[in-house]
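Lab manual, section 2.4: Encoding a predicted structure.

Procedure: take the sequence of the chain (312 residues), apply the prediction step described in section 2.3, and record the output as structure tokens. A sample record is shown.
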Amino acid sequence: MEGLTVSLRAVFPIFAMLVIGYWARWKGIVDDPSIKKMNALCFQVFMTAMMFYNVYSMDLESDLNPRLMAFAIVEILMILAVTTVIVLWRVKENAKRGVIIQAIYRSNFVVLGLPLITAVYGSEAAGVPTVLISVVTPLYNFFAVIILEIFNGTKPSVGKIAKNVILCPYILGAIAAMFFVVTGLRLPEVIESLIQTLGQVASPLAIVILGASFTFENVRKYARLLAVICSVRLLVIPGITLTVAAALGFREVELMTLVALFATPTAIASYAMAQQLGGDADLAGVEVVMSTMLSVATLFFWIFLLKNLGLL
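Recorded output:
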């Protein structure tokens, strides 16, 4: 019973916010132009504020976990390498290649990670995933830009790739916050409070916007690809990585952090990046939608399973 309660507590708020977003779209409260504007506002302001505050408020001495960080980075790079080889072998269209690779290796850790972990272990457990987010996010963006640039049909430019990586709002927020962490300087309390408040808006708003973005127009068009992508993203990758993690002794908050990293759906930001960098944006959008819908069930399954095995 405890495993069921914990799983519901973690997953239900996400499901409810998705439904609220879908309802708002259905009722005509929001439409495509307003959703795009809200999405830009969310990622450029609220998500950047969240990234800044999470890094700014972390305690490196107690929250830094080199073993967990090394495991996460190695696993991401392995997933990226294997996925790239298979996609190059099986998929012939460049516009789809970059989008598929990004959909499989890049999870929605930033938006869904902290809500999942704090739902299970409380806000006091946010330190470990926060430090990992500050490392994983630049890694995700760096490779996403490179992959999409390579497969968009133009000659990749090192300067353009570097510019797109460096100017990503997430990364700018993390870099700015890291300056304060390293130097020990602190912002005035009123500014800290403002940034914290802005950051608290990020995840709920992003999830509601995603719910409002749900459309099913391209599901039939990409049905076979979607079945493979969602199966790999939500079942195969977490099945392998979480098994290895458990065998290596990761437990409780550490293991829950890895659930949030490897079992969450395709990152919302992957759709915007595909649009900007010449990938198949229709495929990218429906990947995000379908993987997020299905993840409500798969996340429940993984959390319930690990809780009942005594690992969480």
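Check your result against the sample. DSSP finds 14 helices and no strands in the chain.
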